[in-house]
Amino acid sequence: MKIPGFSTHAIPKTRVEIQDRITGKTGIIGTFSADLASRSEIPSGCRMQPCPDGFLEVGIPAIQRAILTSTEEAPWAVIDEIGYLETSCEPFLKALVTLFDTRPVIAVIRKQSLPFLDELKHRPDVFVIDLDEPVLPIGCVIMASGLGRRFGSDKLMVSFQGQPLIAQILRATSSALFAGRIVVTRSKAVQTFCETAGIPVLFHEFPNRNDTVRLGLTALLRSHPELKGCLFALGDQPLLSRETLETMAIAFSQNLVSRSCENEKAISSKKEQGIFRLCFEEPSDVTDPNPSVTVGSPVLFSDFFFEELLALPAGKGGSFVIRNHPEDVHLIPALSPYELMDVDTPENLNFLLDHADPDLSSSHSEK
Questions:
Q1: Averaged over 49-69, what is the pLDDT?
Q2: pTM of the model
């Protein structure tokens, strides 16, 4: 399937070309000129003189083709890239705006402060990922302190697709997007399993959920004092995916980064606070315009809430902080409702086994 849009390609010290992704037609949108270095209106380091014909003959037709292509034929249009040269042609920019107003677009935008680029990045329907810093330093506490009384045994060590149940969340949280993670448990068997796998683990004998939160966050801050957020995940959510956790981490990071960019003082202000919580929204239809939304774990808190998390009342968990700050909660949708489900009983375990990916087996062991 050909994806509509255009791509650009720079030939060093010669020219920049634009290519229609559907037809393959190529045009020139910039030519090299060393004399541009002395002109104040040209961005620093740019040596390309704009060539309007390439935008008019190739760029705009490519955009128009993308506008006319249905989302059934191609879910996205792809633009690679938009920078100084692209902002030199007004008709081309108008076509780009129409494209963004018409259909979903994946676009690469140069990290320059130019009026059109700044306006594009601040559209309410645009989600920006800074590829130089995709995520802020985020920690992960795996809550594994339950004793499995309702289950009847140490549920985190029961077999799930050939590995202990705890191995599923360890796999999901193994992403490099997390600056650090730690398992907090009252199970000696879980402690041994984590130590054997080389995963940081903290064994304790305190009775309450607030103890698990405090111990885990304190340990992470001791080793990673730079943390800007911390995700708290349950040890018994076997169908929670790594992709979902990465989505939460990126959404959290880009939300805070974008707010900081709007106001330099926001870095240390209350504007940066945020709580990102996983949810599942039932598909809506004409008979149910207000679909139900299920919320659950994991939850990612910004460092604004660390003090509250470290001083939770006895027996309380992160939901205590959520109830105190409902206006700061952002919901992140899961791919399926099963990602939110945990294992409290053998019946829960069997149900989730029935809905697990059969390709996810013990051969994909935790590294």
A1: 96
A2: 0.65
